[in-house]
């Protein structure tokens, strides 16, 4: 239970940091820091100061979904909105994001069904 959750959080941190680092390098921007939470309302966020936050539960989604969320949040380092220019930037960073975005909308809530002794 708790050990598995710790392992998944550590794995999520590694994968999300690697993805965020790669997308930030593509963008030519740096982020301030990265934190993990267990949020139900959002999969990630990017503050105006460049702080990235992700749900650690993304590690249980398909790898392309985790990559998409990282690209989405890193794109906010340049575009702090969801205007067409933002979505174009997500496409430049990630590619065709529609399947990953759809998977998250259709299946994401199920990632909260897993309990790890909490």
What are the key terms here?
118 residues, mainly alpha, Zincin-like, 3-stranded mixed sheet, 4 helices
How many individual β-strands? 3
Tell me the fraction of residues in β-strands, as a range. Answer: 5-15%
What average pLDDT do the residues reach? 96
Overall 3D geometry?
globular
Compact description:
The protein has 118 residues and is mainly alpha-helical.
Please describe what this structure looks like.
Helices cover 51% and strands 11% of the residues. The mean pLDDT is 96. The chain is mainly alpha-helical and 118 residues long. α2 (63-75) packs across α3 (84-94). The chain has one domain (2-113): Zincin-like (2-Layer Sandwich), CATH 3.30.2010.10. The protein contains 4 helices and 3 strands; from the N terminus they run αβββααα. β2 and β3 form a beta hairpin. A 3-stranded mixed beta sheet has the order 1-3-2, covered by helices on one side.
């Amino acid at each position: 239970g708790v050990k598995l959750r710790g392992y998944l959080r550590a794995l999520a941190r590694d994968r999300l940091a690697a993805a965020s680092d790669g997308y930030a390098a593509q963008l030519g921007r740096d982020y301030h820091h990265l934190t993990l939470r267990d949020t139900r309302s959002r999969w990630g966020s990017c503050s105006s100061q460049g702080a990235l936050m992700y749900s650690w539960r993304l590690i249980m989604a398909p790898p392309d979904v985790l990559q998409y969320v990282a690209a989405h949040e890193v794109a906010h380092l340049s575009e702090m909105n969801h205007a067409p220019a933002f979505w174009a930037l997500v496409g430049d960073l990630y590619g065709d994001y529609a399947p990953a975005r759809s998977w998250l909308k259709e299946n994401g809530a199920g990632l909260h069904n897993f309990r790890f002794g909490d």
